[in-house]
Amino acid sequence: MFFHPMDILIFIAFGISLWAQFKVKGNFSKFSDVLCSSQLTGAEVARRILDRNGLYDVPVEVVPGTLTDHYDPINRVVRLSEPVYYGRSISAVSVASHEVGHAIQHKERYGALVLRHRMFPVVNFTSGIAPFLLIAGFLMQSLNLLGLGIIFFSFAVAFQLITLPVEFNASSRAKNIMVAEGIIRNDEEHGVNKVLNAAALTYVAAALISLFELLKFVMIFFQSNDE
């Protein structure tokens, strides 16, 4: 039987993922048209927050594209997309503050972030091999290969689950800092929440898809073992 009961949950999670991506783009676009009261650019906001936290040596760079913003923990660089780097909107300052939140986590050695960094080399290796082991296990009807594939795939799932508190914590830091620094007014928090919460939902959906897929493989493994 090719259809498995867990596929229903996977399809639901996949639907949530598509909806979340739509909300991210929609909210980012909507609040990109709303000028922030401080009228600071995303780059200026990032630089101010970094300096306030003693991260003078962490540069802020512009990268091409939209929603390509990220913090590079290896080179310790905050990279902002052009709409965020140059923008003075609610979307721009929200995303910039979120990425700086990761830099502050790095400085403070935030537990979940440290664990994610340590896991990355292992996950980078296991996630590349897991699909081949799973496919080989099914085709060859080998429980050993299937079991090994499940173990390798579980590292990727664990990595995504650990990513959730990292992202939520960065967003929480961003909101608190923006209010404390006078970057946004209290009445602008609604727009900030819309932008950051939609982005966080994409990570939740991705984690759910992977978790349900893992549970599906585990159930198939034990059912095959009983047979």
Automatic annotation (TrEMBL):
UniProt keyword terms in alphabetical order: Hydrolase, Membrane, Protease, Transmembrane, Transmembrane helix
GO molecular function terms listed in the Swiss-Prot or TrEMBL record: peptidase activity
Pfam families: Zn_peptidase_2
Domain of life where this protein originates: Bacteria
One GO BP: proteolysis
Transmembrane segments: 6-22, 119-139, 145-166, 195-222
Entries under InterPro entries matching the protein: Zn_peptidase_2
Coiled coil: none
Protein name in UniProt: Zn-dependent membrane protease YugP
Species, as recorded: Aeribacillus alveayuensis
